[in-house]
Every structure is written in C-alpha cells, then in structure tokens.
Amino acid sequence: MGIGDLGKRLLLGRKLRSAQLGETLLPKRIAFPVFASDAMSSVAYAPDEIFLMLTLAGLSMYAFSWKIGIAVAVVMLAVVASYRQNVRAYQSGGGDYEVATVNLGGTAGITVASALLVDYVLTVAVSISSAAQYAATAIAPLQGHQVIVAVVATLFLMAMNLRGVRESGTAFAVPTYLFVVGILGMAAWGFVRYIVGDLPQATSAKYDVLPTESYADGIGTAAFVFLLLRAFSSGCAALTGVEAISNGVPAFRKPKGRNAANTLLLLGGVAIAMAMSILTLANLMNVRVVEDPARQLLDGNGQPVGPDYYQDPVLGQLAAGIFDHFTPGFFFVTAVTGLILVLAANTAFNGFPVLGSILARDGFMPRQLHSRGDRLAFSNGIIVLAGFAIVLIVAFDAEVTRLIQLYIIGVFVSFTVSQAGMIRHWARHLRTEVDVAERRRIHRSRAINTFGLAMTGTVLVIVLVTKFLSGAWIAILAMAAVFFVMKAIRHHYDMVAQELEAADDDASLPSRIHAIVLVSKVHKPTLRAVAYARASRPNTLEAITVDVEEEVTADLLRAWDEAGLPVPLRVLESPYREITKPILDYVRDVRRRSPRDVVTVYIPEYVVGRWWEQLLHNQSALRLKGRLLFTPGVMVTSVPFQLRSSVAAAERAARDEASMPGAVRRGTVDDDRES
C-alpha cells in the first residue's frame, strides 16, 4: 500500500461495499444529534442576536425580548408541524426541492435548491464562527485567532463526515446529548436559585447601554416596529436546521417517515425549551450584550469601557453567574456549547451532499456530486461545502454578527415554497381520494401546511425587509447566481445528450482508414506502435517524424532502413523547431483531402511508476493528444510501453491487494499464497 493510500485509510477507514449501504442507516437516537444539532445549537447565538438588535435603542427594549422569543417559538412549532407532513409524504431525500419540483414545477424546485445550498454553506460558516467565539471565551490565548480556529474546525468536520454518516453521527451523539443536559441543567439550577432568591446578576449587569446614534434622540412608532421586526428576524435563526431532516429521511431506519417525524417533534420541543429558558434567565440576570461594547457599554461614571473589554456571549455570562460557586459547571457548559456549535455545522454536512447528489442526478449539478466515496458518503459534496464555508469564514473574519445578516434568507425561501407545494400536493390527492377517514386526515394535513405557509411567508417578508440592506442582498445575489449556474449546467447536459443521441448513419463504416504512427526514435515503443498499427489492417499506413535537427533526422532514417520495416517514413519540415504544429497541419491536410476517411494517429508512450518520472516523459505526447482531440474525424490511439518502474508499481499494488482481508474469497490470490 502506497503512502497516499495508507494515509487515506487512516483518515477515512476501510472501504465499504455498496451492499453495506443499509448498515449506515441511523436509529433515532443517532439521527437526533446528526440532524437536530443545528436547530438546538441556535440557542447559543439566537438570543444574542435578539439582544443585540434591541440594545440599539437602549436597555428599555429588553422588556420585549421574551415576547419575541414566544413569537419565534410559535413559528418553530408551525414549521415543525408542517415538516412532519413533508417527511411522511416525501421520503426520497429530495426534501423541499422534491416537494417544489413535483407540485410547483422545475423553476420552483431550482429556486428552493439554490436557496438551500447557499443556506447550508452559511450554516457551516455561522456555526463554526460562533464556536470559535465561545472557544475564545473559555481559552484566552485564542482571542484574536478565531479565524484559524474556525478553519481548523471546518476541516475536522469535513474529515469526520468523509468517514461516513453513521460513524460521524456516532462520534457526535455524546456531545450533543451533553449539550442538552448542560443547558437544561444550567437553566433548572438557575431557576432554583431564582426561586430561593440566590440568583446572582451577570457580570455585565453593572454597565449601562448607550443607544446608537439613530436612536439617541428617542424612537418613533415606525422605528420601534422596525426594530422589533429586526430582532424577531434575527431570532428566527433558531429555525435553521429543521429542513435538513426532510433531506435526510433516507438516512433513517425504517419506518423512515415516522422516525423522521418523531425526530422533528423532539427537536422542536427541546429547542424551544432551551431558547425560552435562556431568554428568561438573561432578563432575570440583567445580561448586557451590545454590537460595539467598547463604545456602547458605559461604566458607573458614564464612560465607555474601552477596547480592552471582551464581551462574553449570553450563554457564557449565564454559566459564569449561575455556576459562580462551581467552576467545573461553567467550563462544562462552555465546552459543550462550543462542541454543539461545531456539530451544528454537521447538519449541513449531511444535508448539502445529499441535495447535491439529487441535483446532480437530475442534471443541475456536476455529475461528480452524485458519486459515493469509499465510505458510502457523498465525498465530493462534503469537500465542496467545506471549501465554500472556509471562504466565507475568512472573508467575514469569523464574525457571527456580520454573517448572521446573510443567514436564514435561504431557509425561509425553502420553507415558504415547500409549504405552498404541500398544499398543492394535498389538493391533488383530495381529487382522487374517496375514503372518508383518509380525506379527513388530508384536510387536517393541508390545514397544518396552510398555517405553516402563512407563518413562514410572513417571516420571509420580515426578513427580506429588515435584513436586505444589512447584508442579506449578498445571500440573495448568491442564490440567483447558483440558480443560473444550475440552469446552465442542465442546459449543457441537455445539449450534450442531444448531440450524443444515436442516428441511423452513426453505425456506418468509414470509407477508408488512414493510419499514422508518430516516430521520434527507432526503439521498442516505436516498434510496438508500428506492429499494433499494422495488426489493425488500415487501408493506408505511414510513419511520420519531425525534422528538428538534421543529424538526428539522418540517424533516424538510417535506423529505419536498417530495421527493414515495411512502412514508409515521412519527414515533416519544421523551420521553427516546433513538433506539435507540423504534425497537426499534416493530419488536418490528410483529413481535408479525404473528408469521408478516418485518420488514426498512433502515439507511442512510456508508462512510468513514480510521479516524478511522469514529469520527465510524455509531455510532447500529452500536448499533441490534447490538440488532436479537437480535430474532427481523427482518432488518437496511445500505445503504452511499460518501463521497469511501472512493472514494480503494479507488483506492489498486487501485493497490497493480496494482503487485504478476504483476498482468497475474492479470487485475487490463491490459498497457498495467502496462507
């Protein structure tokens, strides 16, 4: 086994057969952390975003935080209830894309797909960046190096997911459950301390907040409403990740639809409980979170705290206060929060590759995304997602507040279009269904999706209005770009399929075959190429060489005559010492003289076994083949000659295969050798 293969096996594990795909399916206890971690992790940054928006107008606006939280919870319940209908009706893994395509048409499907692809990339960027911020909270030396931490975490997630969905899910299940226990346990202990009158104030409670300039002179009715809507739209980041379950239904064990629906219900309940607990405790402990702490936070003398102040996230402040007499509790909550934020990106690593595979199958994405890797994961999609996420992390300096403005646009586009598609789905079934009980169930499902459409459509409008100028236009532009790229890819594949479609005259034989053997020296590769060309019995056969140096050409002609080959050798003039152009001109001239003939060019090539040897050989042949491929009516045939290093490489590969478990059973080696 080569060094490259050994490293790949250590990183990814042993290969899995296609027949083992069923072994990678997830039970609910593993599916929950795999697909629900994104929605649950939003409690680590969604409350921060609500407070950040409200403090623009001063501390008095904090009184509306719990009301905004209730509104977000209502939308969450509506979306969860709606998607429970989706996953039961559509279980192929297409999710919102399939729902929109089947019920609303191809354009709606591509619109949803482009929105989801962009949102998955943003999910990774936002979650990992937030995790880097929490890491900097707990580990002081990491402050200022959040970008590096985020990039390393993204690469780690990519490597884990390349090992397969089941293996990554098993590895991430424990941290996810620890996060749930940690947050709910912290909340329970915080409420106990509040009841007994022992709940401390947050470390930031001593500071006052300076409103931003636009709100310094008070706030009018219109500005007040707009600010609340901005806070609500930021809080709706808690809903991201719900759609991933509809794309991940194929990864569930049977019955897939019911298991996915139950996972959705559990997700909604846990996420709402945690988010509302954090919002309530943040108000009870008077947490202060502002966009520009150095300028907006004022000390007891009314002076800004200055640039040396580091603002901890809401969860960090709550954990520090609630566990002020139990330091391990603080570190535990901080650690599992950082972990869940990294794992939240794992939801996208499960959703993006599956959606990309389905789009590739339908011709809207490169076909490489449809292929499964060694571990039966869609490896190319995983790598593409990680690459785009790293670009965003670096471009936005891993700042969650800047990235969050681009966030959730895509997911609410998919939410809204999907609910409209489900309404059309149920209406179509009602036209043919005659069973009374089943019609009653369909009416109930359609009512749920109608309510979901009303809620998600309203949120989408709010998000577009409040976030457009704050950066959401970038996400919309990205969605439009992805949309047109997918249309272009499909157009290309359609055109290629049309050109490749067989016609009646495609099987007819050419009039004549004119064979040309390229010659540089009279040696074994050349003799093999000449022999192979003669064995193919062309109508005409000749060898050609290019005269670059007169002495070399004279020696070649003399060696050709001495070899006694029954093939004429033509010398092409090259006054400018070029090799490729004279050959191309001659081949095209032959083709021009006989348009109904086929010209076959035989190119002798060395086969080497080491990468550095490849740099020393066959460069002229590669350039020539590349040019000949674009010449109509010309066939290019490589005639390989294996050098000793290539034979050694083949023997090493054979030994590696023979040493693998099960070699005898596969027939790659006999019993005596394996024993």
Mind explaining what this structure looks like?
The structure is a single chain. The chain has 26 helices and 7 strands. It is α/β, with parallel strands linked by helices and 675 residues long. The protein has 2 domains: 38-494, Amino acid/polyamine transporter I (Up-down Bundle); 511-642, Rossmann fold (3-Layer(aba) Sandwich), CATH 3.40.50. It has a 5-stranded parallel beta sheet with strand order 5-4-3-6-7, sandwiched between helices. Strands 1-2 form a two-stranded antiparallel sheet. Helix 2 crosses helix 8 (165-195) and helix 14 crosses helix 15 (379-395). The two termini are 19 Å apart.
Task: Indicate the topology.
Blueprint: H1 3-12, H2 28-41, H3 46-54, H4 65-89, H5 95-104, H6 106-138, H7 146-162, H8 165-195, E1 208-209, H9 221-235, H10 242-247, H11 256-284, H12 293-296, E2 297-298, H13 314-322, H14 327-361, H15 379-395, H16 400-404, H17 409-430, H18 436-500, E3 513-518, H19 524-535, E4 540-547, H20 550-563, E5 569-573, H21 580-593, E6 598-607, H22 611-614, H23 619-628, E7 634-642, H24 644-659, H25 663-666, H26 671-674
Parallel strand pairs: 3-4, 3-6, 4-5, 6-7
Antiparallel strand pairs: 1-2
Helix pairs in contact: 2-8, 2-11, 2-14, 3-9, 4-9, 4-11, 4-17, 4-18, 5-6, 5-17, 6-7, 6-14, 6-15, 6-17, 6-18, 7-14, 7-15, 8-11, 8-14, 9-18, 13-14, 14-15, 17-18
Brief characterization of the structure:
This protein has two domains: 38-494, Amino acid/polyamine transporter I (Up-down Bundle), CATH 1.20.1740.10; 511-642, Rossmann fold, CATH 3.40.50. 64% of the residues lie in helices and 6% in strands.
